[in-house]
Amino acid sequence: MNTIANPLDPAHPLPAKSLVLVGMPGSGKSSIGRRLAARLALPFVDSDTEVETAAGMTIEQIFDRFGEAEFRAVERRVISRLLNESPHVISTGGGAFINEEIRAMIKEKATSIWLKVDIEILFDRISRRADRPLLKGDGDEPRIKLEKLKEIREETYAMADITVESDHRPAEETVTRVLEALSSRGQMTGIRYQKKE
Q1: To bridge 41 with a disulfide, which of 9, 97, 103, 146 should be the other Cys (CB 3.0-4.6 Å)?
Q2: CA dihedral in degrees (192, 167, 115, 163; nearest 10)?
Q3: What's the Cα-to-Cα distance from 82 to each of 41, 77, 85, 140, 152, rounded to whole Å?
Q4: H/E/C letters for each residue in 42-111?
Q5: 19-184 is classed in which CATH architecture?
Q6: What gap in Å lies between CA 33 and CA 45, rounded to an integer?
Q7: Angle subtended at Cα 169 by Cα 50 and Cα 151, rounded to the nearest 5 degrees
Q8: 3-state DSSP: the chain helix, strand, coil percent, rounded to 5?
Q9: Which residues, 6+ apart, have CB-to-CB distance to 123 below 8 Å?
């Protein structure tokens, strides 16, 4: 990957393309994304937050009022805009990479990174939050939905340029594994990043 000068931090040249994190809800895309961006002195953006800003309402409200199709349409427009901006780290919603059009845009204009997470860890994480529209339900229903969603989506997530296992270890360790995976694939040629002990 070619690099360009970073006027704010010459020690950390910027990658020529954005880095896009993909994966299941609860895989840590936003948390890892923020830390990855900090390590590379790049801007960070969460596409879900950008969708909410563009729509003037929460994702849950978009789903409730207009349905999933309208949410995906707004998401597609937002991600297209983000991919045409200067390089940064982008955290995407769980279904973004599943959309063929969005996936093609990411493949063309960015380096995609799948954060692969075990179902037990995913369920533990998402069970703490009530803002996952596709995973609502009572009793065992959310877990059953999550398992089905994971089974359906993983084949597509595997199309990402890089796959990194995300587990119970500290987030900074996952970030380091992402950087090492990028380097080993030649995706970060010339990039120097701050190692965390």
Answers
A1: 9
A2: 70
A3: 17, 9, 5, 37, 26
A4: CCEEEHHHHHHHHHCCCHHHHHHHHCHHHHHHHHHHHHHHHHCCCCCEEECCCCHHHCHHHHHHHHHHEE
A5: 3-Layer(aba) Sandwich (3.40)
A6: 8
A7: 60
A8: 50, 15, 35
A9: 26, 142, 143, 146
Domain segments of the chain as ranges: 19-184
DSSP β-bridge partners for residue 142:
none
- Residue 111: phi, psi to the nearest 5? -105, 120
Please choose, from the candidates 22, 49, 21, 47, the residue with its C-alpha nearest in 3D space to the C-alpha of residue 36: 21
What tokens does 192 get?
Answer: 């120097």
CA distance 128 to 17: 34
Q: Which of 19-23, 64-68, 79-83, 133-137 has the lowest mean pLDDT?
A: 133-137
Question: What tens digit of pLDDT does each residue of 51-82 get?
Answer: 999 999 998 899 889 998 899 999 999 999 99
